[in-house]
Structure formats: C-alpha cells, structure tokens
C-alpha cells in the first residue's frame, strides 16, 4: 500500500487544524516533523516561501523577502504548515538579513538533523540596494559536509537580473 | 529502413485507442512499455507533465503540480499515453508531495528498469508555501548510481523565482 | 526658479526623519500632504506598493498583496513616506481584501480630496485562488465622476496570466 | 470602525473550517455569500483560479484550465473558500469547455445577482489546439447590460502568445 | 441538468474516434458542428492553433504560423477535433499567407454562419520578414457587422516585439 | 478553387529568384505588387522587420531598428521579398529616424495606394536614448482618414519597458 | 530627394560634436531643435530615456527613473543629443518626482511648441514604494487639447507588475 | 584574405538555388557539406530549427518540435540549406520522437564524421504530455567520446518551465 | 537570544541616520563594517545595486550599470547603507568600466578582508556596445584563492540575451 | 590615485573623436588597445554587440547577429569604440557565419594576445534555421589553453528557446 492517511500522522497538529494560532513572537517551538518514509534514498525537498517579512532591528521598518529552503532529509522531515507558522513568527521581530538566514538554518538543523540544508533569502531593496544571503550546511564528518562546501563553491554564478522594478 | 509502424508495436494498447478507460484508483498496472531501438547508446527522454493533480491526505483538498520525468532507457521505454493514464490515477488519491514523487520513481523503476531516472514535482502553494520534491535513481552497482549521486550534489543551485502569482 | 527644498516643506515630518515610528494599529492619522504645484493641470501620480501585508479577519493568517494607487491631485498631494507608514498600519490588522481596498480609497479621498483616484490590490492565493479588488472614485458632480465610471467600464479586459508559481 | 470580524459573518461556514468536505458531484449548493459593505460604489472583484480541472464528456480524459472570474457586486458577494469548493465539484464531471463557462456564469448570477460578471476559461491544448471561452453578463435593463455588450465588443483584441510549451 | 454526454452529440464523429484520417488535400468538408446551447447569449470562443503549416505557392518551401480564431456563435459551433483536421489539410497545400487567412474565414462563415469571427495568422520569418494577416467578419446587416468594423479600427495598436529569435 | 500558383503571378519577379540583386542605393523602384484577391473586405497585413539598418546622416554611424508596417490593402498588395530589397536599400544611406519612417510611408502609399497604412520604427539607443517614430496615413476623404486620426489619438499609451540591455 | 545631410542642419551643434560639455546645473538652455520636414502630417516621436537620475530635495539621496517622452511635432523638433544633455542637467539637482516631470513638459513645450506631448517617469523604489508621475499637454484651443484629456482619461489602466526586484 | 565566395564552394548546390525541390520522402541524401576552414580548432556550431514537423507512426497525426543541433566539426561541415531540406523530408513521415532524434544523429554522423554532436528535440504536447529526447555522440576512442558521456551526466538539470500554453 | 539591536551596533553610524551626507568625491572612507556573528560558517552575502552611475573619463558623459557584489565574510561585514554612500561617491567621478570594477574589489578587500569576493558590472551600451567586467578575489594562500580561480574558469558561460532595448 | 584620464591614454584615438570614419572594407587595422592596469589579476571583460551585420557570401543577402565577446586580458585591452569600428567593417562584407566568428577570434588574439577569449555569434534565421557558432581560445601552453578546452566541454548545455518570432 502506498501513501499515508491522517491516522498515520498523529504528530501533525497544525495541518488541517481550524484553530491555528499565529505567534507574533519569534518561536522555533512551533515547528513539527513527520517521519521520512524513504530514508534509504537521498532526495531533495524545496520550500518556496515568497511571503516572508520581518523588521529592521535599527530602523524598525518592515523588510520583505522570498526565502528558498532546500534540504535532504535524514529521519525527520519538517511539516509545511508548521514551517509557515515558524516563518510567521519573524513578522514583528528584528534581525539583520544575514543573521535571519543563519538562524533559520540553525533552527531547522536543530529540528530535523537533516543530511544537508540550504537557505537563500532574496530581500527587496532599501535605498536602491537589495541583499541576498545564502547559507548552507552538511552534516559534519559526512559526505554532505563536502557537498555543502562544493555547492558554496559554485553558488550563484549567474546573478538574476535586478532592476528594482 | 528507419522508423517503426503500428504493426511493430503490438504491445502498445493505449496509444490511438478510442475506448481509453481512465482509472480513478491509483494504478501502476496501466503502464505499458515498448522496446528501446538504440540500446547501445546512452540518451535522455524527458516527459513534461504540467497537468498532474492529487488530493491532500490530511485535508482532502486538491493539489496541483507540474512533474518533470527524465530517464536514460535500458531495454524498455515507457509509452507516453500509458504514462498519462498512470498519472491520472493519482487524481482522486491522497499522498504527501514528497511521497508521491518517490512512488513515481519506484513504479517506473519497477516497470522499465532504466539506467537512470529522476522526477521533479513543482506544486502550487498552500498558505503561501509551495513544495518541490526531487527524487533520482541510478541502477545500483553501475556508473549510473554515481551519476545519480553527482546530479543530486549539484541539484537546483538556481531556484526559479516564485511569487505565488 | 524650478523645484523646491526642505525649507519649503515644513508640513513634511516623516521624509528624512531618523526617528520614524511604525504604528501597528490601523492609523490613517499618519498620512501627510504637501501642496500641488501644478493645480491647473490634470496629471496622474501612481504609487507601486508591492510590500502590503495584512491579516485574515477569520483565520488570522497573513495576507500579502501588491497595491497600485493612482490619482489626479487637486490641491493636496499625499507624501510617499507617510503613505508607507499608513500602509504599514494594516500589518497586524484584519480585513477582507475587498474591504481593505475600499478603506484605502476612503481614507485617501478624505485626506487629499483628489479629482480622481483608483486602488487595485493583487493578493497572493489561498487554497489556489487569489483575489484582486479594484476600486475607483471621481469627485461627485464633476467630469471625474464620469471618468471613474468610464474606467470601470473598461477595467481589466486583459487579466494577467496567473499560475500560482 | 473599519473592517469586520468572525462574529460579523455567521453565514460564512467554510472559511477557516477544519472539517471541509470536497464534493465530487457538481454542486452549486456549496456556494456561500456575505454582504457587500460598499453597495453605493461600483467596484470590481476578480478571482484568479488556475487550478480548475474537469473531464471531457466524450473521451473522459481530464481537462485543465485557468479560469478568471470578475464581477461588480450588488448586495451579495461570493465567499472565496466556497467558490473553491464549487469549482472543485467539476473535478470528476464532464462538459464541453464552452458549456462549463456558461454554467459558471449562470450559477454565480443565480447566487449573487451581481450588477456585472464575466468568466474567461483558458484551457490547455488537446491535439495542438486550445479553447478559451469568454462569457459575460450585465443585469438586464440596467447600464450593466450595455457594459457587457461593450466589453464583448472589445474583448481580447490582443490574443496572448500561445506556443503549447 | 447541466452538461451533455456522448449520446447527445451523434453529429460529432471525429472527437474520440480511433480511426481518424488526416487528409493531405485542402478539405473544408471535414469540418463538423454541434449546436450552441446558449444562443440567447453573445459570447466568444477562441481557438489557439500554434501548429499550422502550409507551403509557399511560389517556392514550395514550408511556412509555419500560429493562427488565432475567435468567434461569437449563432446556432452552430465548430467542433475542435474537426477544426484540427481542417487546418491539417493545408499541410501540403500552397497559398499566400494573406489568402490562407481569408479562406479560413470564408470556410468557417460558410460552415457555422457565426455572428462574428476573426482570424489572425502570425507566421515565422522568411528572409528576415514575417507576415501577420488579420481578417474579420460580422454578419451583414447586423450589429456584428459594425463590431467587425470597430475591431478593425483598433486592431493591433501594440505590435508584439519581434526579434526573429 | 482557392489559392494561387506561380503561373498566376507573372508580376512577381523577386520571390524565389536565385539571382536577387541587393541595391546599396536607396531605391523604391525595387518594390513590386500583386493583386488583392479579397478587395471587398477590409483586413490588415502586418510586416515585422527586425533587421532594418541605416546610417546617421550627421555622424555616419550605423543605426538599427525593428520596423513594423501594417496596412489595409485596396487593389494592390506589396510583395514581401521586394519589400525586403527596398528596406535593404537604406543600408548605406543616411537619414534622421523621423524622416526615414515618413519616407517609408510615402513610398508605400505611392506604390500601393492602400486604404490605410502605419509604420513604427523602434531604434536602438545612442548615448542612452532611443527614438521610436510612428507615422500613419488614411486615404484622404475616406473613413480611413478618420481611422488614422483615431489610431494616432490612442497611439502607444503603454510604452514598452526599455532598459537599454 | 529624400533625407538630409549635415550641411542642412547648421542649427545642430551637439550631435557629432567631440567637445560636448555636460552641465551639472539644471539647464534648459542646452536644448536644440531642427525643423519638422513633414508638418502636414500628425505623427508621434518617442524618446526612451532609461538613464535619468536626480537628487531628492529633502534627503539628498540619488533617485533614478526611466522617462518616456512622446510628442506630435508642429514646426520644431527636439534634437536627441541636446535632449540628453538637458536630462543630464538634472543629475545633481533636487526635485520631487511629480515636479520634475511637470518641469520637463513645461521646458519642451516652451522649446518646441508641439501639438501634443506627454512625459511618464517611472522611478525606482524608496522604502518599498515607487512613484510614477504622468503629465501630458495639448495645444490649448486645438483638437490636441482634447486629445490630452482623452489620453489622461484612459491612462495606465493596466499598471505594470512591480515586484521591487 | 579572409572569407570565401561562391566560386570556392562548387559543392554547395542548394544555397541560393532558385529551383529547390522539397522531397516529401525521408531523404538523408539531400544533405551537403563544405570544408571546415578551421580544423585545428575545436569549436561549436549550433542550428536552431523551430519548424520541425513529422507524423505519429501510430495515429498519423502531425507532431511538431523545435530541434537543437550542435556539433564540433572535424573536416566536413553540414550546409544549412541542405539541412533544411533534410529536416523537411520528415514532414510526411512517421516515427516515435525518441527514434527521430536518434536517426538525425546517425545521419549527421554518417555525413560529416564530426568530433562531437548532440540533438535535442522539444515536442509539443499530446494529451497534456510533451516529450523531449536528447541524444549525443562523441567520436569513439577519442576525448570527444568522454565529452559526450560528461555532457549526458549533467544534461538538463534545470528543466524549462512548461505550462502547455 | 537571537538577533541584535541598535545598542549592539555602535559602529554603525549611517543606517537610520537622518543627516546622511552624500559625498560627490570618490571616497572609500565612508564604508563601515559590523562584526560577523557566524564566523565558523562559510556563507554568501550578495548586494544587488542597479543604481550605479559614473562618468566616462574621456568624454565626460554619464555611464550606468547594475553592479552585483557577492562575498564570503571573514570577521568583518560591510554595512549596506555605507556601501550605498560609497557607490554614490563614483557619481561625478571618471573611470574606465574595467578599472571601476577592479577598484571596488580592492576597496572592499581592504575594508573587510573577506574570504572571497566578486564584483560584476553590467553597463548600458554606448554606440551599440555594452561592457560587462567581472572581477573576483580569494584570500591568497587559502582555499578561497582556488575558489576564485575555479569560478573564473566557469564564469558566464551563458551570456544573457542583450538587445539594447 | 584611482582611475585614469584622457591625458593617460594618448593611444586612444577613436573614443570621443568627432571625425570618426567608418570603413566599409573589412579592416582589422582600426582596432586600438590600451594597457591593462590590473595585470596581476585574472578577470573577464565582456562586450555585448547586438548590432552586428554582414552579407551572405553566396546570395549577397544581409545577415544579422548578436555577438558576445568575452576575454581575460594580459597586457593589452581592446578599446570599445575601435571594436565597434572593426565590427562595422563586416557590414558590406561576405562570410559564412562559422568563418566570421573564427576570424574575429583570430584578429583579437593577434591584437591583444589575451590569456583567454571566446566569441559567440547568434544569427537571425534564414528559411527557418538560425546558426550560432561559438569559438574560443586559450594561450597555448598555459592553463588558459586548458580553460578553453574545459569551457568548450560544457558549452551551451541549455540552448535558449528559439521560436523565430
Ligand atoms: Ca498561497
Ligand atoms: Ca511568478
Ligand atoms: Ca495556490
Ligand atoms: Ca505566474
Ligand atoms: Ca503545438
Ligand atoms: Ca527567416
Ligand atoms: Ca523574439
Ligand atoms: Ca545607450
Ligand atoms: Ca530590456
Ligand atoms: Ca527601495
Ligand atoms: Ca523586476
Ligand atoms: Ca496537449
Ligand atoms: Ca508557455
Ligand atoms: Ca546602442
Ligand atoms: Ca533586452
Ligand atoms: Ca523567440
């Protein structure tokens, strides 16, 4: 039998839940996982999250980004609705763009202990300049650590065309 | 003489068949193959299938994806009309996005025993997040197994721009 | 002498102000105006604001839109930094998409008494559907009232292509 | 006071509801409305629904379309989650493309009695040809009836470029 | 009861027919119609046909075009599979681009007696120049005749960007 | 009988001619016509010519443009290969952009006596500025003269985005 | 004889001039004209100038815009190199976006006395908002005055998609 | 002296030939070559051929593709007009997409004995699925054989977005 | 505790400062840094700066570019508002495009002593040609020096399409 | 002191020169160089030249291409205005596309003795086929020779989409 149903996923509490609470405080505790059904295989899962917003720690003004999160699961996988709530918790929170992307990597590594993960934030401009931090991680002492190094080596050799419009 | 005609392909029953039946039950049994005429050569065949739809196993709501399937044939090749019927059989069926892509790889490996295969699903967003699983496979113990590892290593270093519009 | 300097604009308090405060409460009171230097001419000013976010009044989940505001000034013109603060004040506030766009028109009419104004919000999808309300207004009893009617008549006859990606 | 909350909308039963049921039978009865808060104003609301799918009544094969629905409300407005459920109910249902778009107009006119409405379906190709029906309606005996005629007169004078890829 | 099934459409012989014959001779006789179920309403149906090919009557070389056909039905509607066969019949046939588009209009008027129809062919370049004929028609003595005149008056005021690549 | 063959077009000497001579002198005399087979109908023919080049009369440097030519034929129609030779004859010739577009209109009016014609040149930039002249013409004393006036009135209200890249 | 050479244009001093001086002071005096050779015809000339920059009068920070200038000449036409020098003279100059576009219209009307002119500036964002003023003018008491009014009435009904990236 | 003229190319019989005959039978014999003038250098030549059409061997329906052919010449190079005639000869011929691309490689290898060659066909969809075969070849026993293997290893890791529209 | 506030960043003087002074003299002294909070990790930060302008040292005419700056920080990181002021200081300054990009690399290496940095300038055309210099640097004697060499080796193998429009 | 002025560049005679002469004869002698100020560093300079035109040596008809030239300088660098004059000298000259690109490489190697250079010409189609030659070169006996080989190995694995429109 392929596939899995609701009854197989008691640990998933947010997906399909009517009473979802959105926390306005930065809160990695909302993240939930489910089990990887294909652990003998290395494969990628990517989340496209174009609705990320936070506040500038110096000026208090809102910042917006599209954040791309891509990982190779080991035993645990992050559930997407809980990931949404986690990202929401940056909404009224202040951080430098570079720090925010590092924190997301740290939290997801802590949560899932993935084989490999990378996070790329592409922010909208302030004063004519936009900032795009890219952070990655491979499990130390494994081939995935080398993978992280290799992907950083060839990262973004074709910067997308930016016109600020 | 180049090319082949209807009479050379008795094993193809769906292509050009007026009475096609669409199964609403997940059914890998509808898949059909024909013989590879160029087995001494390594080459790629890609299917672009932007009309894939399934159901969320938790909420029952419909999910939509474009699925890209690419493989190097060995002896057998999947016939495209039967592939269409197979993908149709997910229509009223529920699975996590990550599981569905793994299952398609498993079924096509079982069917064709290809040298190499990869499947990339790009789903539409729910709650502002979209999920794109990528799964690949190379025949164990061959150079294609290394090929799979190498392609995973450099997978998707340029995530496409996603705006949810 | 063309142009105008800081000293000509004492009523502008937000632009260039280091101590900007961002209100998390819906607050039309932050809006500021400056005088139209070309009142004998009918001309358009458009604001492109792709960083609009609010909350769903029913589910509390965040909503995102690009809002296009276009108007023909009469005596007063809205200053763009104060407009930014005003739009920010919807950040933690809940409204139906259709209501939010009507409210923005009402507030800007109240503020500037423009000859003509229109507001078009283009939201990101929820559950596969996105909503784009368009509201316009022409000063009652003037030719601009007819202008509003005429522009509504021919509004959006070429809907942009939407794929949710 | 601007905006409205959950308590003001008892007639909305689907939005935010955990136990949503998706009907596989064509069912206009799932449609729900809420009251227009700005009835003195003519304004447009557009729904972009790129996840519409139905079945061919002759061959049984799946059809896919992006459907654009745009209307000027009178007293009632259609709630978007219920619209989603309604469109879902075409999933296992068969109709000619031209008929499906006419039916959607008929059902939404029956539901909301809008001042004006238009529906444009853009289907994916079969055999190298795609079909895009466009249907509109203005309340008979009003200026909106003329509006419908006028919009049809100038409909789609710039067909989008189609390459089937 | 909405929709219609196979049994309601005995006059449709090509759609879903396994034994389709493609005629290499120009043949308007393959065109088939079905009845318009919504004759009290004026609405548009558009066919996008990017796979049109014919031969140059002078040089014999192949020509390729995307042809856009858009019409308001009266009593009869052209069935899309038969339209495909009709367009196929130009495959080994020679005509000037301008003549071919006029012929398609003539044949479809003869077939369906539509209220309004227009055909726009966009050909690929020869020697650095491409040709795009646009032909329309409104039923003589009706408002649709004026419609045709009006649409021609405002035809293609924004020529698409062509680079020949 | 539809279509026409080589034997019906003795006046066409350039199309399909192996010994084509390209004149480097501005030469409207190379233009050839053939007869309009559908003179009772008003219809448009457009030529897309992205390979137009001339010389600056002041600096001698080369200029490049894409030229769009669109007309409603009366009795005569311009043959496209001869049009190509005519446009080629500007290659080593000097003119202001604005004059060149007027001259093309004048020559084609002289040649074909069309009901309506328009020519739009879109040049590449020099020193950061590009120039796009648009010239049109309707047969004096006919409704096409009014058509020209009307099309000029609404010309290019949506200038294409230009970045010089 | 078509075209004109250097000797016919003694009033043009900047085009092809090696010793061009760029004025850093706002200076409409650098503008030069040449005579319209086709004064009996109404036609459009458009300048695309994506390299416009100025300073904010309040903060001193640089602003950037693409400015589209489009006009129907009467007797005089603006020479493009002198237009470039004129636009350059805004480089170290401060003005509100709305004022700058009005000033350009005023200066070009003063210079050329055109039948019709319009100027559309599309600026890059500051703080997530961009401003696009559009100003037009028709010679008072002529049909071009009505043309200006008509073009304003239907101005920019399809705002371009802005993402700030 | 650089370049070469007609007199240096007696073996080229199709290019510039008025009496070109288009064969409707698959015919690799129409292919012609000329000599590589730069044989000491490895370099690529690519042909973009978006006007390829053939017939389905099972259903007889027309298929369309854009075919990209790219090679490193050795002594002989294929002449482009003869390549056009060769590709034309598939027009009324039936083959599976995968076979057609292999046959083109075989024929061009036979003709030119190139160091390296690859052919990528991108077909339009049938029933919602499109097929893109990619075949390459390097001269056996040379470094180009390894080149072929290496290019296959990294082939198409970024599938283009396909929407079927 | 994640994130950092104003009080943690006393060395940042420009960000959020009302009295920003823009220097018209080339001035690397305006650059400011803050400390890297994640020094044990290699990660990329990219700045997109589409609003770069300078003067041609020979002709004095303005030049415009989009400059992409991407680096792996070591101990210090450049603050983006100070980077903006630094880039502004090229505004009235003259340099060859190739020199300007080298100078930016030199100044940022001097400022931050980064592990790796690269700068790519994409200028608008003059006389039909645009110039895009790309300069990179890796800390000598480290693996980042090899990284620079490797990235140069594979730099820009897919030049973006340039049309000068 | 950074940058360099006119006085430092006596060898540059074309840039900023009012009396530029355009040679209609193929003439590599017009090329000029200036000295590389950063010779200790390997870096790329790219020229985008979308305004290249030549004549077909067989038919005499004009050909058009966008040519991309990219190189790593050693001691000398080509000045862009002289490059423009050089490319202009192909205007009335005939060559096969493949030869023209090889000749440009040869001439620039002869002129600058660069470490590495590559030239990619992308021509417009004739008879539905376009040709894109790519030629590169690394200084023999250096690591740049291997670089050339490596870049050829991975050249153009993602052919751009070509539609001939
Ligand atoms: Ca969404
Ligand atoms: Ca998008
Ligand atoms: Ca969605
Ligand atoms: Ca989209
Ligand atoms: Ca097609
Ligand atoms: Ca061509
Ligand atoms: Ca194009
Ligand atoms: Ca330029
Ligand atoms: Ca552009
Ligand atoms: Ca900004
Ligand atoms: Ca953009
Ligand atoms: Ca299809
Ligand atoms: Ca497409
Ligand atoms: Ca240029
Ligand atoms: Ca471009
Ligand atoms: Ca194209």
UniProtKB/TrEMBL annotation, chains A, B, C, D, E, F, G, H, I, J:
Matching Pfam families: QueF
Function: Catalyzes the NADPH-dependent reduction of 7-cyano-7-deazaguanine (preQ0) to 7-aminomethyl-7-deazaguanine (preQ1).
Protein name as annotated: NADPH-dependent 7-cyano-7-deazaguanine reductase
GO molecular function: preQ1 synthase activity
EC number: 1.7.1.13
Keyword Protein biosynthesis recorded: no
Protein family according to the UniProt entry: Belongs to the GTP cyclohydrolase I family. QueF type 1 subfamily.
Family matches, as PANTHER family: NADPH-DEPENDENT 7-CYANO-7-DEAZAGUANINE REDUCTASE
Main localization of the protein described in the UniProt heading: cytoplasm
Active-site positions on this chain: 56, 63
Subcellular location(s) per record: Cytoplasm
Catalytic reactions on record: 7-aminomethyl-7-carbaguanine + 2 NADP(+) = 7-cyano-7-carbaguanine + 2 NADPH + 3 H(+)
Annotated positions binding substrate: 78-80, 97-98
Keywords per UniProt: Cytoplasm, NADP, Oxidoreductase, Queuosine biosynthesis
Enzyme class, first EC level, given as a word: oxidoreductase
Pathway note: tRNA modification; tRNA-queuosine biosynthesis
């Amino acid at each position: 039998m392929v596939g899995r149903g609701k009854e197989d996923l008691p640990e998933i509490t947010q997906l399909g839940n009517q009473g979802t609470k959105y926390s306005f405080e930065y809160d990695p505790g909302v993240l939930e996982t489910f089990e990887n059904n294909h652990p003998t295989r290395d494969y990628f899962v990517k989340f496209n999250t174009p609705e990320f917003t936070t506040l500038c720690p110096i000026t208090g003004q809102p910042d917006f980004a599209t954040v791309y999160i891509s990982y190779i699961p080991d035993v645990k996988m992050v559930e997407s609705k809980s990931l949404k709530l986690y990202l929401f918790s940056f909404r009224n929170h202040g951080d430098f763009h570079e720090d925010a992307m590092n924190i997301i990597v740290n939290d997801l590594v802590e949560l899932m202990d993935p084989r490999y993960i990378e996070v790329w934030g592409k922010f909208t401009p302030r004063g004519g300049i936009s900032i795009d931090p890219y952070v990655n991680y491979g499990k130390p002492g494994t081939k995935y650590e080398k993978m992280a190094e290799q992907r950083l080596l060839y990262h973004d050799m074709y910067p997308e065309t930016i016109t600020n419009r």
